[in-house]
# Entry
Amino acid sequence: MSDTKPHLDLSLYLVTDSTPDILGDKDLCHVVEEAIKGGVTVVQYRDKHADTGQLITTAKRLHVITKRYGVPLLINDRLDVCLAAGTEGVHIGQEDVKIEDAKRALPANAIIGMTASSVDEAEAAINGGADYLGIGTMFATPTKKDTKSIIGTRGTQEILSRCQTGTQHSVGCVAIGSINATNVQRVLHQSTARGNRLNGVAVVSAIVAASNPKDAATELAKLVKSAYDTFYVSTPPNVQAATTTDTILRQIPAIIEKHVASSVLSHNMTNTVVQNFAANVCLATGASPIMSTNGAEAPDLAKLGGGLVINMGTITPDIMNAYQAGVRAYNAVGNPVLLDPVGGGATMVRRTAIQTLLRAGFYDVIKGNEGEIGAVLGTSATQQRGVDSGPSTSDVQAKATMVKLLAQRERCIVLMTGATDFLSDGERTLAISNGSSLLGKVTGSGCALGSVIVSYLALQKGTDKLVAALAGILHYELAAERAAKQSSCRGPGSFIPTFLDELYLLGQDVKNLDLLANAEVE
Ligand code: 3NM
Ligand code: MG
# Structure
C-alpha cells in the first residue's frame, strides 16, 4: 500500500458473491476483471462461506487483477484477510468488528467502509472515521436474506439530508439492495435530498449473476453517468426554469397550439367509470387516447412517445401488477407517467397500493385532491368518505405546503386539485383558480385532467415539466370556465358536451386566447 489513501470513485461499486445461485459456474476472477473493464470503480470481495486460507488465496488473486486497473479491493468483514493479502481496505457491517478496532489493526492508509441503515448508524460511522458508507437495504433482495431494514429511497433521503455524507461531503456513500439497470437511474434521482446525492450504487447480482458481466457493468456505468439527465424534477440540467408567473404564462398559448395539432398519445391505465369521458376529453384537446390496462403491451406503447396515466380508481391484484409493469415500461424509455391515487386515503388496500406503486417507479406528476395528496404524504388527517374529495380542512397556505413537501420528497411535480389548484415542483408553487364548480359534478373530471396533463408532458418532453403541466391544466380549466358560461349549459348533464366543445374550440383559436389565468407563483 502507498502512504496516502487512494482516491475513491464510488460510482459503480461491485460486491462479489461466490454462491452458485449468483456466480453460477463462472470464475470469480474472470467476472471481476470483466466487470472492471465494463466500468466498475471499486470491488469488495465478500464471501461468507469460504475458509480463511481460501479467502486469502482468492483475495490475492483478485488483488493482482484490481491493481492492474487501479481499482481498490476491499474485503468484507475480515481484517485478517485484508492484512494477509495486502488489499486497500475493508468493508464492515454493524455486526462486524468495531471501526475503532479496525482502525487500530489496519495501516493508516487503509480504506474502511461501513454499512448504515439509519441516521444514527450513519452518524456513528462518520464520527468513527469511516471513509464511505454503504447505505441500505434499498429494496428487499434475494442476495442477502437477513437484511435488517428495507429503507427505500425515502430512508436514503433521510440519511442524505441529515448526515455529512453524499456528494456534498467528504465521506461518500453508495446505496445497496436490489439495484439494477431497470431502477438505478430513478433510485439515484429519488434518493437525492436537498441537492445532496448518492456518489454511486453498489450491486451484487446485477453484475455477478449476469451472463456477460462486462456488458452488465458497461450498461450500469453508463446509466449512473446519465441518471440526472434522464430523471429530474422539472427542468433538465441544461434548461433554465422560468420563475415568475408572467414568464411561465407567456409560454402557455404556443404550447396549447402545438398540442392541438399533435395527436400525441395519452395512454390511460384507468378505471372503467371514466374511460369513455377521458378518451373524449383527450380527443377534444388534440391528443390520441388509448385506454389499455394490459401491462404486457405497456413496453410497446411506451415507445410511441406518449405519456401514461396510472389511475387507482379500480384496483385489483391483477391491475396492480399491470400498473407496476406500466410505470417500469415508461420509466425505461423516459416517457412521462402521472399517478392519480384515486381514493388514496379511503381504505387500507388503497393506502397499501399507494406505497406499492411509489416503490415501483418514478412518476413525473402525482395528482390528487386534498385527501389523496394527504394519503400519499402519509399525513392525512381527513379520513376520506368515498373516492370524491371530502370537505376541505386546510387553509390555502397549508395546502401549498403539503404540495411542496410532497414534491420535494418524491422529487416530482405534484398537483392538488380543488377550487384552487396547487401545482409545485418543490421550488416553485403555483395557485391556479380557474375552472368551474360544475367539474365537481361530473364523474371522472379529475381523472380526465390527468389524461390531458400526460399528453402535454409527452409533447413537451425535455422542457420544463411544471410549465407543460400548467398548459394542460389551463387548457382544461379555461374550457370548463367557458362551457359553464354558455346558454347550452344548464347543469352537469349539458355541461359535459358543452365542455367537450369548448376544449376543442379553445384549441382552434389559441392565437386570440385571452389567458385570464388566475395563476400565481409563490
Ligand atoms: N448488503 P443485490 S444488501 C451485500 O443492505 C449486501 O447491507 C446489503 O445484492 C445491505 O445487488 C446486499 O444482488 C446484497 O441485490 C445486495
Ligand atoms: Mg458483514
